[in-house]
Amino acid sequence: MQSALETLRSRTPALIWKSARGEYSVDDAAMHRWFEQCMREGRWPPEDPQRELFVSDEEAPPFGQREENR
Predict the structure, then answer these.
(1) How high is the pLDDT of residue 1?
(2) Which helix or strand (DSSP H or E) is residue 48 part of?
(3) Opening angle at CA 40, ends 34 and 43, nearest 5
(4) What's the CA gap between 28 and 1, in Å, rounded?
(5) Is 48 left (phi over 0), alpha (psi -120 to 50) or beta?
(6) Which residues have C-beta within 8 Å of that of residue 64, sequence separation ≥ 6?
(7) Which residues lie closer than 8 Å to 5 by C-beta, 6 or more apart?
(8) Do the strands 24-26 and 16-18 form a parallel or antiparallel pair, or are they unpaired?
């Protein structure tokens, strides 16, 4: 088992990552590239798609001034 894990770690890109404590984890290079691209483009962390929710109509701005109508 150990030799199989080390073989997967030696590939480029590595398929397995080993922590300093000796724990193993699957390494997903495509996910890492996606995350780096999101960071570069300012899309991470993602924004809440629901924006601000209002509990009552008294708290909400007039309909013409709400975010979804801008």
Answers:
(1) 83
(2) none
(3) 75
(4) 20
(5) beta
(6) none
(7) 16, 18, 24
(8) antiparallel
| Residue carrying structure tokens 């000796």 | 22
Amino acid at 40: R
Query: What pLDDT score does 52 carry?
Result: 65
Along the chain (70 residues), what's the average pLDDT of each consecutive run of 10 residues? 85 80 83 88 81 62 57
Q: Are 52 and 60 in contact (CB under 8 A)?
A: no
pLDDT of residue 47: 78
Q: Of 10, 13, 9, give the one whose Cα is nearest residue 33.
A: 13
Single-letter amino acid, residue 36: E
Q: In the prediction, which pLDDT does 37 show? A: 93
The number of residues in the chain equals 70
